[in-house]
Amino acid sequence: VVAVSPKITEISSDISINEGGNVSLTCIATGRPDPTITWRHISPKAVGFISEDEYLEITGITREQSGEYECSASNDVAAPVVQRVKVTVNYPPYISDAKSTGVPVGQKGILLCEASAVPSADFQWYKDDKRLAEGQKGLKVENKAFFSRLTFFNVSEQDYGNYTCVASNQLGNTNASMILYGE
């Protein structure tokens, strides 16, 4: 018998899936003797193998199950060969932090809205029901992947009140209210 080191001949492509969907990954390998195939999730929380054959099925995938999955083919002839597939799990935004802030007149004030989402959330700010436009006098809006910051350079009485941050992506939107108040 001629020994042949393992070789992965076919593996699933990277995929993007909405939370709750089903994922099916395949890893086909050749070699002599026939290689043993295992799948594992590359993640700090992952323990051991999650599948001991060519197929990995995940039903009702959660955001914690996103990341890289590694297929390993081994047959003791040579070192195992490994390849990875990236699984991106999309989910609608949820706002993890939005606090009201007290600021005296004439001072700088900041309202912060933090949100997790995949793809990253788009943010919009409203005062009462009126949308705040970027570049409005005395205001600055900074949007990053996971948060939006509304800065008042010189707080006036008129700035006090109720503000709403809306975070949205293709899967949905959510909002949180906070108050800018005087001290």
TrEMBL record:
Entry protein name: CEPU1 protein
Compartments, as annotated in UniProt: Cell membrane
Gene Ontology cellular-component annotations: plasma membrane; side of membrane
Organism the protein comes from: Ramphastos sulfuratus
SMART domains in alphabetical order: IG, IGc2
Membrane topology per record: Lipid-anchor; GPI-anchor
Domain Ig-like as annotated: residue spans: 6-88, 92-181
Main location, first listed in the record: membrane
Pfam families reported for this sequence: ig (PF00047), Ig_3 (PF13927)
Family per record: Belongs to the immunoglobulin superfamily. IgLON family.
Gene Ontology process terms (BP): cell adhesion
Keywords from the UniProt entry: Cell adhesion, Cell membrane, Disulfide bond, Glycoprotein, GPI-anchor, Immunoglobulin domain, Lipoprotein, Membrane, Repeat, Signal
